[in-house]
Specification:
Blueprint lengths: L4 E4 L6 E9 L3 H8 L11 E9 L2 E11 L10 E8 L1 H13 L3 E2 L4 H8 L5 H12 L3 H11 L2 H25 L4 H37 L1 E6 L6 H9 L17 E7 L2 E7 L9 H12 L6 E7 L6 H9 L5 E6 L14 E2 L8 H10 L2 H6 L8 H22 L8 H15 L5 H8 L7
Parallel strand pairs: 1-6, 7-9, 7-10, 10-11, 11-12
Antiparallel strand pairs: 1-2, 2-5, 3-4, 4-5, 8-9
Helix pairs in contact: 4-5, 6-7, 6-14, 7-13, 13-14
Length: 445
């Protein structure tokens, strides 16, 4: 933490500019060795013109941004060198910084320092990466609410409520002789506990919306051969992504594609037609199709309007009955022979009639409501796991109150709630977890 780190912060390649960033106590001293101006004369938050030099030779004409501690991203001195965006010149400037005393930063180390130095909490740090990875406008909005501390504020308010509960309990323990205070305090604890439990539960309920915005809806298109799965995929994507023929078993591997529906990414997986087969390659494709069900957020089970239900159709209806699914009856432009007494969506991939299917996806996942919300959703698996643990401890607390457990025994569950919520924001953390978390970041971020 006390050495000075440097890295290229822009994507490698040819472009108008590249940025090389350096952070640490010796940032000014190191840059001053390779800059043809006196870096120490510049005020913080300024951009300054000059040249990077290697001994007496000019490497590039640059703009150097100066940010002085503690009001910087890492709370350390930071210099950003804006150079022309060639691969060679960018690497040369980084090389000069390393030769003059800087160390190559690890992935995510700038943001890691921001966290360790108290500039941001763990939710804000993870939201930085979510913002970089955002593929939709909704995902960007959700991530920025994490970056600017709105989500952290919600978690901190929950933690404060738990701290209020434990302070009430300590009044009971410290002043047991005051019976009136004890009765009143127990009632306060009960009310606080129920309110806290509801708030945690509400946050967990919205986490499904957060996951959908962040990761999209993984949708498996399933059905037996020749029911029109690939044609439906092509209509959804508005391109000829999958090969379509009248020959059963044409699709033998997974064909993928994505669309945006109401600001949410829908990730479609067209699978091999499910049927009994002796063809080794097709059999592997069928097995792969069925294996995708476990990870699917949605199953589009495609049936043929022109035929009665087959044995394979009935088996697929049974296999997917506990999944979130939409039964899609295709080929409605043909004579109807299907014998199905379940709700289903009618489409004709041949006639490009799939609007009803898109409307059903929108309705099933309440995408309109998600986008109308404030976008302050929790979506990170680590954070959701910790909130679930806090919810379990909160359930235990309410149960203990109902069973009349001695008041001093209630502290265990409340302290667990406080600890779990503290882990969400990084008030308490494990060094190994922190190293693993930031290793997923970009180099230079």
């Amino acid at each position: 933490m006390y050495d000075t780190i440097a890295a290229i912060s822009t994507a490698q390649g040819v472009g108008a500019i590249s940025i090389v960033r350096i952070s640490g106590d010796e940032a000014l001293e190191i840059v001053n060795k390779i800059f043809d101006q006196d870096i120490y004369k510049y005020e913080s938050n300024t951009i300054n013109y000059g040249h990077i030099i290697d001994k007496d030779k000019i490497v590039d004409e640059v703009l150097v941004s100066v940010f002085l501690a503690p009001k910087t991203y890492t709370k350390e001195n930071i210099i950003e060198i804006n150079t022309h965006g060639g691969i060679s010149v960018t690497n040369k400037i980084l090389e000069l910084l390393l030769e003059n005393g800087a160390r190559l930063a690890e992935p995510g180390e700038f943001t890691k320092r921001a966290f360790l130095n108290g500039r941001i909490d763990l939710i804000e740090a993870e939201s930085v990466m979510d913002l970089i990875d955002a593929k939709t406008e909704s995902a960007r909005k959700m991530a920025i609410n994490g970056v600017d501390g709105r989500l952290s504020s919600k978690i901190n308010k929950l933690r404060d409520k738990a701290l209020d509960i434990i302070s009430n309990i300590e009044v009971n323990i410290d002043y047991p002789e005051y019976e009136d205070i004890e009765v009143m305090t127990i009632e306060d604890i009960r009310n606080y506990s129920k309110e806290l439990n509801k708030d945690i539960d509400d946050l967990l309920k919205t986490s499904e919306s957060g996951k959908i915005i962040k990761e999209g809806i993984n949708t498996v298109i399933l059905g037996r051969p020749n029911v029109g799965k690939s044609s439906i995929l092509n209509r959804l994507l508005d391109e000829e992504k999958a090969i379509v023929t009248d020959i059963p078993g044409t699709t033998r591997d997974i064909v993928e594609g994505s669309i945006r529906l109401n600001g949410v990414l829908i990730n479609f997986l067209d699978t091999a037609g499910v049927r009994e087969t002796t063809n080794t390659v097709e059999k592997i494709g069928v097995e792969k199709s069925l294996s995708l069900l476990d990870k699917a957020d949605l199953v589009l089970l495609v049936l043929n309007n022109n035929e009665k239900l087959t044995k394979e159709d009935k088996e697929l209806l049974e296999i997917t009955k506990d999944k979130k699914r939409i039964i899609v009856v295709n080929k409605i432009d043909l004579e109807s022979n299907i014998d199905l007494d379940m709700d289903y969506v009618k489409v004709s991939a041949e006639k490009n009639n799939i609007d009803e299917l898109l409307d059903k996806i929108n309705e099933l996942f309440k995408l309109d409501e998600i986008n109308d919300g404030d976008m302050t959703y929790i979506s990170n698996a680590r954070e959701i796991s910790l909130l679930k643990k806090a919810k379990q401890s909160s359930n235990n607390l309410i149960k203990s109150l109902d069973e009349g457990i001695p008041i001093d025994m209630l502290e265990i569950d409340i302290k667990n709630i406080i600890d779990y919520l503290g882990e969400v924001t990084g008030e308490s953390y494990d060094n190994e977890l922190i190293d693993k978390l930031f290793s997923r970041f970009c180099l230079g971020k």
